[in-house]
Amino acid sequence: MRITTIIRVALRALRRNVLRSALTALGIIIGIAAVVTIVSLGNGAKAMIEANVASLGTNIVTVFPGSFNSGGMRGGYGSIMTLTPEDATAIAAEVPDIDGVTAEVRSRSQVLANGQNWQTSINGESPDYPYIRNWPVAEGAMFSDQDVKSIAKVCVIGKTIVDQLYPDEDPLGQTLRIRNIPFRVVGILSMKGFNVNGQDQDDLVVIPYTSCMKRISRQTNINSIMIAASSADKLDKVKQDIEDLLGQRHKTPDPDFTVRTQEEIAAAQAQASQTMTGLLVGVAIVSLVVGGIGIMNIMLVSVTERTREIGIRLAIGAHDKDVLKQFLIEAIMLSILGGLLGASLGVGASEFVAWKNGWPVLISTLSIVGSIGVSALVGIVSGFYPAYKAARLDPIDALRYE
After folding, report:
1. pLDDT-based confidence at 56, cuts 50/70/90?
2. How far apart are CA 340 and CA 348, in angstroms?
3. Are 153 and 181 in contact (CB under 8 A)?
4. pLDDT by residue (tens digit) across 347-393?
5. Is the pTM of this model over 0.85?
6. At what angle do helices 320-357 and 18-55 cross, to 10 degrees?
7. Inter-CA distances, 371 with 29, 46, 331, 336, Å
8. Which residues of 165-191 are buried (b: 16+ CB within 10 A; e: fewer)?
9. How far apart are CA 295 and CA 343, in angstroms?
């Protein structure tokens, strides 16, 4: 029997019980839709993580305080404040193969200008900050080393601050008050947008770290140190040199700081995203297995219902393999149709979720083709036994079946 004839007969058999066929394919539809949606959102999240890490700058090494072990008590990042401005100065002076260093002090405060106020992030930084973060100053200029030394009341602001406090005028040279302390705006950072966590990166005010420590947060230690290595292949060496230098400076039995490279941070974020995606895909695969069991069940019912039809075909000259192919192709077509509907539903669901929640989505053609291929495999596996059972029927017994 020609394959075109077998397909035509299979379609006719599926149309004979449209509702039953649709309900049987429902498990496949849901499973494929879930896989496509989850993989698309997972790929989108991965791409956004990569973009977010890239937006931090290139070849970055970051030193965090903490990671202590004292008197049986242990702690990680942020558990104690152990970094000082002198640590940042020593790194800049003694560690080779670096292009920039910034000591970082972070705070939050209400800022005021032109009768408007806005709650925002206050970042105390060094003049190397725009270079390290790959974040150029669009207008004006970055403050200088002299401003850091003199604890100057100057600031560089993000685009969100401009929109909120200076919507209709040029902020350069104007006064911005932080905790009622007047700071002069000397520069405006270029627009950076939102990061992977949904935080507005342009919603910040950058001031000399000395000004932040002495005038705003009133602290003696810094929150972190960010270093730009001269090239990607120098990252590991720079990291080791920083660990050695700070170990000598702090003179503690165990390190009271943590050094992380940009690659390690990106890998940790990507691993978390991949783990979650893998768990959700596992749940979707369970749905596919259930769908395959449903197809096998309904094909066994179909074999029972069409026993006399099978007997007549065998009696008039059909071969066992013809009957086998007939029922196998019916199962495969049912599964593929479910896969196509599921893929379409998955693409639509991905776009809807991305639009509704503002999440990133990256629809992969490979995931769609792969999902349809998996649905065909499910059809083959679940349809083989019913098809084999139909092909092994004795023609005489089949003709006598009522």
Report:
1. low
2. 12
3. yes
4. 888 888 878 776 777 777 777 787 778 778 887 887 777 777 777 77
5. no
6. 50
7. 10, 20, 16, 10
8. bbeeeebbeeebebeeeebebbbbbee
9. 18
Residue type at position 184: R
Contact at 8 Å (CB) between 296 and 382? yes
3-state secondary structure of 323: helix
With contact defined as beta carbons under 8 Å apart, do 57 and 98 qualify? no
CA distance 368 to 178: 52
* Residue where the block lists tokens 């003709």: 399
Residue linked to tokens 């910040």:
204
H-helix or E-strand containing 205? strand 204-208
> What would the pLDDT profile of 245-271 be if each residue is shown by its tens digit?
999 998 877 788 889 887 666 666 566
Instruction: Determine the length of the chain.
Output: 402
Helix (H) or strand (E) holding 84: none
Strand ranges in 146-193 using DSSP code E only, listed in sequence order: 154-157, 175-178, 181-189
Q: Report the mean per-residue pLDDT for the chain.
A: 82
Instruction: Please tell me whether residue 223 adopts helix, strand or coil conformation.
Output: coil
> pLDDT at residue 242 above 80?
yes
pLDDT tens digits for range 129-176? 999 998 999 999 999 999 999 999 999 999 999 999 998 899 999 999
At 84, list the tokens: 């000082």
Taking the CB of residue 353, how many other CB atoms lie within 10 A of it?
A: 16
CA angle, corner 92, sides to 87 and 97, nearest 5?
130
Exposure of 392 by Cβ count < 10 A (0-12 exposed, 13-18 middle, 19+ buried)?
A: exposed
pLDDT tens digit sequence for 318-343: 677 777 777 788 888 888 888 888 88
